[in-house]
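Researcher: Sequence recovery benchmark, item below. Answer with residues only.
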């Protein structure tokens, strides 16, 4: 066990440091009117990072399921029981059960982001990123190159350029 010398001075010094840390963090949150929106943005990032691989696996197993049904001659419209048995067998149902709660949490976080009023550029950047990744049909994770932008229709290109511009301005 390390040799620790606890005396009144060291205890008071530790309390002062802890109080300063808490006060600084509280002041930062109070100084930023979009602190809750920024927190939601971090939660969105965390959930999305968890969700993307789960969704990919679920989609992969759904294709395996459909292919397996085709190979066995099972028509899902008329032979649901055998279709669901095959879905269980290939792991599609289990994958869906893993993915669904994360998707629901991501959806709720997305709704909370758009229900929260942004008052700073950082808050608008959270909304811009969420809109870009969860609402727009293209869902560009990285900004397109100029040639990719030029290949888009205006109704996709202009909002996307605007959203990336907001994020760049905020340093996001």
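Model:
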């Amino acid at each position: 066990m390390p040799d620790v010398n606890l005396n009144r001075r060291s205890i008071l010094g530790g309390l002062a440091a802890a109080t300063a840390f808490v006060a600084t963090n509280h002041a930062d949150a109070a100084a930023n009117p979009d602190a809750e929106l920024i927190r939601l943005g971090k939660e969105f990032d965390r959930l999305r990072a968890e969700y993307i691989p789960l969704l990919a696996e679920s989609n992969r197993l759904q294709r395996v399921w459909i292919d397996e049904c085709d190979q066995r001659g099972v028509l899902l419209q008329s032979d649901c029981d055998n279709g669901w048995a095959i879905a269980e067998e290939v792991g599609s149902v289990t994958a869906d059960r893993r993915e669904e709660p994360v998707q629901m949490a991501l959806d709720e976080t997305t709704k909370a982001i758009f229900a929260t009023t942004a008052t700073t550029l950082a808050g608008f950047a959270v909304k811009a990123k969420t809109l870009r990744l969860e609402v727009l049909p293209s869902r560009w994770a990285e900004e397109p190159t100029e040639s990719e932008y030029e290949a888009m229709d205006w109704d996709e290109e202009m909002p996307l350029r605007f959203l990336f511009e907001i994020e760049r301005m905020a340093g996001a």
